[in-house]
Write a structure and sequence with these properties.
- The chain is α+β, with helices and mostly antiparallel strands and 121 residues long.
- The protein folds into two domains: 6-66, no CATH class; 79-111, no CATH class.
- 17% of the residues lie in helices and 24% in strands.
- The chain has helices at residues 13-24, 97-104; strands at residues 6-10, 32-40, 46-55, 62-66.
- The protein has a four-stranded mixed sheet with strand order 1-4-3-2, covered by helices on one side.
- Strand 2 and strand 3 (46-55) form a beta hairpin.
- The longest helix has 12 residues, at 13-24.
Length: 121
């Protein structure tokens, strides 16, 4: 059985938990806080950050992570779906647009979806 979860960076874990519970019926485990977790930053340097997170207890498998400004845990505030307008009628090169649409019948031409090949910060 494949097991994966989706991490979502949020500014308020309690509010995000409540909203997702209301929208899709997610149930949650306890909020966990670790004072020092080792990560690697965009320069390849090792950094130690406090990390606060919460996991769902069932499906969908979600992880909420509290935003830590200036770190790897920041929300994407630079979303520009209009930049992909020309892709509405074309399949993006090096992406899984066609395969994802063929398998699931859904197409997210705006970018940044599950068929995306990029990560934005």
């Amino acid at each position: 059985m494949d097991h994966y979860h989706v991490g979502i960076v949020v500014t308020d874990i309690d509010a995000a938990s409540a909203k997702l519970s209301e929208l899709v019926g997610v149930t949650w485990g306890p909020i966990m806080h670790l004072e020092a977790v080792e990560y690697r930053d965009e320069k390849g340097d090792d950094v130690v950050l406090p990390t606060t997170m919460r996991y769902s207890t069932g499906t969908p498998c979600l992880e909420l992570i509290l935003e830590v400004p200036g770190s790897v845990w920041v929300r994407n505030e630079d979303q520009r779906p209009e930049a992909y307008k020309e892709m509405e009628t074309l399949y993006r090169p090096s992406h899984a647009d066609y395969t994802y649409q063929a398998k699931y019948g859904i197409r997210n031409w705006q970018g940044g979806g599950r068929a995306s090949a990029r990560e934005t910060t």
